[in-house]
Design a protein that fits this description.
mainly alpha
Length: about 150
Amino acid sequence: MNRYQKLAWFNLIVITATIIITSTAIAIEFHIRGYSTIGGWFIVIMALLKLNPFLFKKPKGQNKVVSDERDKFIIKRAVSFAYITFWIVFFVSSFALHIFMGMGPKSSVPTITLPLMACGGAVFIKIVSSVAILVQYGRGGKGEKS
């Protein structure tokens, strides 16, 4: 398993753990109090995603190869796929939000919606790019080592 696959798995594990822990904490607090304010504090767990460069460092020394053209192409394709899917999902969710919140002069969207859509979009891009990296490396030929 190379560095990019380890980073992709780490991203998926951190995001999944954050979603599970946050959902559970919000559900418990909502059941106890009737409302929830604790969800924002779990964004701190997402800060673990910024530790990627420190966890899986590049090997030291000039003789060690970190990546080649295939790795760069896989990363480039994964990121472009993530951005394309993000804009499609963002566009559809914007219209869906407008439809579900109601149309007309008296309907309004809560102010917290736009920051939540931006944070959710960043997490969505990270998930899609990580999955795309793992899928592309998984399609390697028989006998190849990644």
